[in-house]
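Amino acid chain:
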Amino acid sequence: MRAKIFLLLVLSFLPTASSLKAEELLTWEQCVSETKQAHPDLYSALALLQQAEATKQITRGSLLPQLSSTLSSLQNGTTGATSLSALSYSLTAQQLLYDGHKTSNQVASNAEAIKAAQNNYSIVSANVRYALRSAFAQLLLAQDLVGLTSEIADRRQKNVRLINLYYQGGREHIGSLHQAEADLAQAQFEVSQAKRGLVLTQTTLASALGRDISKPLKVQGAFKATDLSVRKPDLQLLAKSNPLFLQLEAKSKGARFDLDASKSAFSPQLYLTSSVGRGSFNRLPVDAVDWSAGFTVSVPIYQGGSGRAAVSKARAFLSQQNAQEKSGYLQLVNALEQNWKNFQDARQLVVVQKKQLDAAVDRSAIANAEYSNGLLTFNEWVIIENNLVSAKKSYINAEATMLIAEAQWIQAKGGGLDGEQE
C-alpha cells in the first residue's frame, strides 16, 4: 500500500505531456523582429537587389580602362638543325572614349533597375507584413474562440440540467429538453472545431514567421487598431508614393534609357589603345622593347537590320512600361479606396457589435430571471440565449476582421516590416 502511494506521489511530480509541449508566447514586436531575420521572401528580394547592383557595376566597368597582359614561350626548330626559343610578353591598355553614350545610357538604365529592385523589396516586405499580421490576428481570434466556445458549452450544459429539472417536474416537455441537448451537442462540436482551428492558425503563423518547423504558439495582444486616422487621406498622393508605383516608374525610366542606348548602336566607337612589351627569338635576356599607342575607330555600316529591329523593340518595350505604369497607378487608387472603406467599416462595426453584445447580456440576465419565475416561455428564452451566443461570436469576429482590414489598408499604402517599431 505504501509503495502504491509513493508511486502516485512520484507520478504527480512528473511533467505531463501538455507541459512538455508548452506554448511559446510571442508579442507582435517579437513576430516582426523574427520575420525580418528569417523570412525567405525577404532574402529573395534582397538577392534580386544585389544582382541589380552587380549588373550596374559590370556595365560601368566598360567605361573604365581595360588592361590585359600576355606571356608566351615558343620553341621552334628543324630536325638536324639548331632550335630557337621565343619568349615574349606584353601589356595592353584600352580606354573607351566615345560610343554615342550607349554605355552611359545602359548604366543609367541599370541605376533605375536598382531603384526598381529596392521598391520590389518594399513590396515584398509589405506583403510579408500583411500575411504576418493576418496570421497574428487569426491566432488571437482562435485563442479567444477556444475560451468562448468552452464558456458557451458550459452554459449549454447548465441549461440542459435546468431544463431536465423542469422536465422532471412537469414544467417543460420532452421537445424542450431535446432542444437543449441539441444546443449542447452543437456547443461541444464548436469547442472541438475551435481547438482544431487553433492548431491550424499556429501553423499559419509559424509559416508567416519564416519557420520551417511548426510548434505550439501563443500570441499576446489586443484587438486594437494602430492606425487611428479617421480623416480620409489623399489617395492619389498615397498611390504615387506606393513602392509598386515607384517600381513601375523606375522601370519606365529604365526603358527610356534602354531606347536611347539602342539608338547608339548606329554611332561609331572610339578607343584609345596602347601596348608595351618585349619579345625575341633569341635566348634571354631579351634586348628589345616594343610599344605602340593610337586610336581605334569602329563604324557600323550594315548589320542586317538588327540595329533598327533593336530600336523598334526598345520603343515597344517603353510603350509597354508606360502603359503598365498608368494601369498600376489606377489599380492602386482603386485598391486604396476599397481598403480605406473596408477598414472604416470594420472599425465602426466593432462599436456596433459591442453595443449588440452589451444589449444581449442585459436581455439574457433578465430573461433568465423571467424564465425561472415562469414569466417567459422556453421558445422565447432560447431565442434570447441564442442571441447572446451569436452576439459574443460576432463581437470577437468583428475585432479580428478590423485587425485584418487594417493590415490590408497598411499593405495598400505600401507599409512594410521596416516601418514597425521594435
Observations:
- The radius of gyration is 38 Å.
- The CA atoms of residues 132 and 208 lie 5 Å apart.
- Confidence is low (pLDDT under 50) at residues 1-20.
- Residues 25-76+83-415 form a domain with the Outer membrane efflux proteins (OEP) fold (CATH 1.20.1600.10).
